[in-house]
């Protein structure tokens, strides 16, 4: 009953000056809303990157060729073709735990079909590529190992490219000309959406890598392989086996740098999401400053309130109220300010996150953890910044307080 009575007194005191109470809560409201909105934007960006990494396929290992320097600048791994057909065949035959593998031969090319004529990306890949990348066929069928060995002129077409060339018609069975060479479309790929770098994964044509090398690019080496391990647990072993095999095949001596790079899907994901994690922490920290400013505002107003109600405190102490009662009353007022402000801020933060998604199309992800932490932090701020004014009120001398005008 005593607690309820103190709570009623605290609410009555806050209602006495409604405008000042609302302005005091404003700092907490803005702080909590900013924390939730900023963290949700950061989490949304991180989740989007992770989903794009997952679109690479399951248990994928990337093997990139060596780098090349031009004008004293390194062009990075994958810029020099140090991987060969022999390397690819050896990985498939000699590395245990590999269930799928495909080279990648990338080139841009002019594509013609009827009156339509576009420039798009053509990728030379193996028959395992669509399964390694977990790419579903919307219609038709994948090209076969025989197509690869015979360098047949067959192709799989992405959704964007198919729509541009054929509209809503089924592209399977249609003939397209890639750099004047006729290729028959044997399969249509289901849409995958945007890649990590912002490019459209569906604006692509896949052909057997032997066809791409002989008829399109003239390349004799590869810049990358995609390898699929049999399980997540097998990925470190497969990665190590591939590294040892390629070092042996490339005759790289002990202590010398590799002329290739082997990266697992997990390593790619960690590298890609590192920036998002840092940005989330940075945005959350900046928004957290607003909470501290709100807490300072609560302390300021509570100190003013103690000064204004000095005589009231003296009367209560004179009629038998204990210092603990005064302390608890003012502390309750401070906590009430921060909790109510926190609840309003949570609602505002959720609304802001939704508005950002609708207005700008940014991915946002509001987690229950961020909501709980923001609420707990706002309550803790009320206790922390409200304790000193409450303690000051509780330690007033009753006689001096009664004489205060």
Sequence-ordered SSE layout with sheet pairings:
Elements: H1 2-15, H2 18-54, E1 60-65, E2 69-70, E3 73-74, H3 85-94, E4 98-113, E5 116-125, H4 129-132, E6 137-140, H5 145-149, E7 154-157, H6 159-166, E8 175-178, E9 181-189, E10 204-208, H7 209-217, E11 224-229, H8 235-249, E12 260-264, H9 265-308, H10 310-318, H11 323-360, H12 368-394, H13 398-403
Parallel strand pairs: 5-10, 7-9
Antiparallel strand pairs: 1-11, 1-12, 2-3, 4-5, 4-8, 4-11, 6-9, 7-10, 8-9
State the gist of this model:
The protein is an alpha+beta fold. It is built from 13 helices and twelve strands. It has a six-stranded mixed barrel with strand order 4-5-10-7-9-8. A two-stranded antiparallel ribbon has the order 2-3.
User: What is the count of helical runs?
Assistant: 13
Radius of gyration: 33 Å
Number of domains: 2
Mean pLDDT across residues:
83
Question: Strand percentage, roughly?
Answer: 15-25%
Shape field: elongated
Element string (H = helix, E = strand): HHEEEHEEHEHEHEEEHEHEHHHHH
Number of strands: 12
For the termini, the CA-CA separation is: 32 Å
Low-confidence stretches: 68-78
Helix-and-strand structural type: alpha+beta
Report helical residue fraction: 55-70%
Q: Major β-sheet, in short?
A: 6 strands, mixed, barrel
Strand adjacency order, main sheet? 4-5-10-7-9-8
């Amino acid at each position: 009953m005593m607690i309820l009575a103190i709570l009623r007194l605290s609410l009555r005191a806050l209602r006495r000056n409604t405008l000042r109470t609302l302005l005091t809560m404003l700092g907490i409201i803005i702080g909590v809303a900013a924390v939730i909105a900023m963290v949700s934007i950061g989490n949304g960006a991180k989740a989007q990157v992770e989903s794009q990494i997952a679109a690479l396929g399951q248990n994928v290992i990337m093997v990139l060729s060596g780098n090349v320097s031009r004008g004293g600048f390194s062009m990075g791994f994958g810029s020099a073709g140090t991987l060969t057909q022999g390397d690819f065949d050896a990985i498939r035959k000699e590395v245990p735990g590999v269930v799928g593998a495909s080279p990648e031969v990338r080139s841009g090319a002019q594509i013609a079909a009827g009156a339509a004529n576009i420039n798009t990306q053509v990728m030379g890949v193996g028959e395992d590529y669509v399964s390694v990348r977990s790419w579903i066929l919307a219609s038709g069928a994948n090209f076969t190992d025989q197509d690869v060995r015979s360098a047949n002129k067959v192709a799989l077409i992405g959704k964007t490219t198919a729509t541009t060339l054929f509209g809503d018609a089924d592209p399977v069975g249609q003939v397209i000309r890639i750099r004047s060479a006729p290729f028959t479309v044997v399969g249509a790929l289901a849409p995958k959406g945007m890649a990590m770098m912002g490019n459209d994964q569906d604006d692509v044509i896949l052909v057997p890598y032997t066809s791409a090398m002989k008829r399109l690019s003239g390349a004799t080496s590869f810049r990358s392989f995609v390898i699929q391990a049999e399980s997540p647990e097998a990925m470190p072993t497969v990665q190590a086996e591939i590294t040892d095999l390629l070092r042996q095949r490339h005759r790289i001596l002990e202590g010398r740098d590799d002329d290739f790079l082997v990266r697992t899907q997990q390593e790619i994901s960690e590298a890609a999401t590192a920036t998002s994690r840092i940005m989330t922490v940075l945005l959350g920290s900046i928004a957290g400053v607003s909470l501290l400013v709100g807490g300072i505002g609560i302390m300021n107003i509570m100190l003013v309130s103690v000064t204004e109600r000095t005589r009231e405190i003296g009367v209560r102490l004179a009629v038998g109220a204990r210092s603990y009662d005064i302390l608890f009353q003012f502390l309750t007022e401070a906590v009430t300010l921060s909790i109510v402000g926190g609840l309003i801020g949570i609602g505002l933060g959720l609304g802001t996150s939704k508005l950002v998604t609708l207005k700008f199309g940014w991915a946002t992800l509001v987690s229950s953890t961020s909501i709980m932490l923001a609420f707990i932090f706002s309550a803790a701020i009320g206790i922390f910044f409200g304790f000193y004014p409450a303690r000051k009120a509780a330690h007033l001398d009753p006689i001096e307080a009664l004489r205060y005008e």
